[in-house]
Amino acid sequence: MENYTMEGRTYRYYGQEAPLYPFGYGLSYTTFRYRDLVLSPPVLPICANVSVSVVLENTGLWDSEEVVQLYLRWEQSSVPVPRWQLVAFRRVAVLAGRETKLSFQVLAEQRAVWVQDWHLEPGTFTLFAGGQQPGQKMQVPSEVLSAQFSVTGTARPLHGC
After folding, report:
1. Three-state secondary structure call for residue 131
2. Contact (Cβ atoms closer than 8 angstroms) between residue 56 and residue 99
3. Residues in CB range of 2: below 8 A, 6 or more apart
């Protein structure tokens, strides 16, 4: 085998074609609403982590669980990267008519790209939070919120942080 590229071989590198059954695909006995996606800080130095919070509300009639998923997209990169990458997920039980606020950390190493070694690059990133992948064709109503943050500084090896 001479071609080791992942292009067209895994769901992360399909380009514009979405997988038939992406991660998080399925049905629920209730409905959920996402709101108040907050990234802090919105501008961070190259080696810093970003804090994420989002509110999940069970708007249906039944107690249920939701798998909250966070995906990261590089808006520009010096090397090919996935269309988006799963960076966090959590199964959460929410009573009918109730809501919960969830907090996550997206680590600097989760933004690293491979350039003969793991490197961090400055730029703009989009973070998605919801019960499915961004752009996924839905079986039940679900929202995917998005927010952008910027990373400043000079590109450097991950081990230099």
Report:
1. coil
2. yes
3. none
Q: What is the rounded distance in angstroms from the CA atom of residue 53 to the CA atom of residue 23?
A: 21
**Rounded CA separation 156/108 (Å):** 12
The pTM of the full predicted model, rounded to 2 decimals, is 0.83
Q: Is pLDDT of 139 > 70? A: no
Nearby residues of 39 by Cβ (< 8 Å), 6 or more positions away: 50, 51, 52, 127, 147, 148, 149
φ, ψ at 4 (rounded to 5°): -100, 5
Q: Tokens representing 70?
A: 């966070």
HSE, side-chain direction, 13 A CA sphere, residue 92: 26
- Which of 133, 135, 137, 102 has the alpha carbon at shortest distance from 24? 133
Q: Which one, of 145, 141, 155, lies nearest residue 28 by Cα?
A: 141
Query: Mean per-residue pLDDT for 121-128?
Result: 97
The one-letter amino acid at 14:
Y
| Homologous superfamily of 32-160 | Immunoglobulins (2.60.40.10)
